[in-house]
Design brief:
By secondary structure, the chain is mainly α. It starts with 10 loop residues before the first helix and ends with a helix. Helix 6 packs parallel to helix 9. It is built from ten helices and no strands. The protein has one domain. Helix content is about 75%, strand content about 0%.
């Protein structure tokens, strides 16, 4: 039996039609969300995507360049802490996202602020979820959350919440409190969409069993 080195890149997991479909579909949804909804209205998502839009709007830096440069440190952390296969899949997703943002320009799909926040969040959250299901990420925030948790003891949610609180506070100062509030709706919607795509309906399914024969019940699992 051939032994597989744990740090070896598992190309057979990367180049399957299913994995490639997940990556391309996820990136496509993210590009649609950012170009058609979020960027024209200065609405932010959390994490590296949000920082990229923020810096793009304040300093007029090319957003494709920002997406690549800001994700590089987290790709390296993922390579060191998670593995080479994860790093390769993440690099593919980030580069595809940068290419899509560079070449694809979409007119704002709607001018309704609430629709922009909700559908922008659903689209980018679904895109992020599909890329996660492929084995990579298009946003380095999750990687840094895992890395920091091991050193500080805070949970992923607490670290990401602190990170995004600072981000949205800067957005409120730069773009106004109303834009920051709609950005929070975008972020919340994106988070729920990502969880649904990654976990499916299983996340919302539960069963409570009340019995005096707990040991016998446990044996069924």
């Amino acid at each position: 039996m051939k032994k597989i080195h744990p740090n070896k890149i598992e190309w057979q997991k990367i180049w399957t039609p299913k994995q490639l479909l997940l990556i391309f579909s996820g990136v496509g949804l993210a590009v649609l969300a950012m170009r058609g909804f979020m960027i024209p209205n200065k609405y932010l998502d959390g994490g590296i995507t949000g920082i990229s839009i923020l810096l793009h709007e304040i300093f007029n830096i090319n957003i494709s360049l920002l997406v690549i440069v800001l994700n590089l440190p987290f790709i390296y952390l993922g390579y060191k802490k998670i593995g080479k296969t994860f790093a390769v899949q993440t690099i593919m997703a980030v580069i595809l996202l940068a290419i899509g943002l560079f070449f694809i320009h979409i007119k704002p799909i709607t001018s309704d602020k609430l629709l922009i926040a909700i559908f922008g969040g659903i689209l980018i959250g679904s895109g992020v979820g599909l890329v996660i299901r492929s084995g990579g990420v298009i946003d380095g925030a999750e990687v840094i959350a895992v890395f920091t948790r091991r050193r500080t003891g805070f949970s992923n949610s607490e670290i990401i919440m602190l990170f995004n609180t600072i981000l949205f506070a800067i957005a409120a100062f730069a773009f106004g409190i109303e834009t920051a509030m709609y950005s929070l709706i975008t972020y919340f919607t994106a988070t729920r969409a990502t969880h649904y795509v990654v976990d499916g309906i299983e996340e919302y399914t539960a069963m409570n069993i009340v019995s005096t024969k707990e040991e016998e019940v446990k044996s069924f699992w």
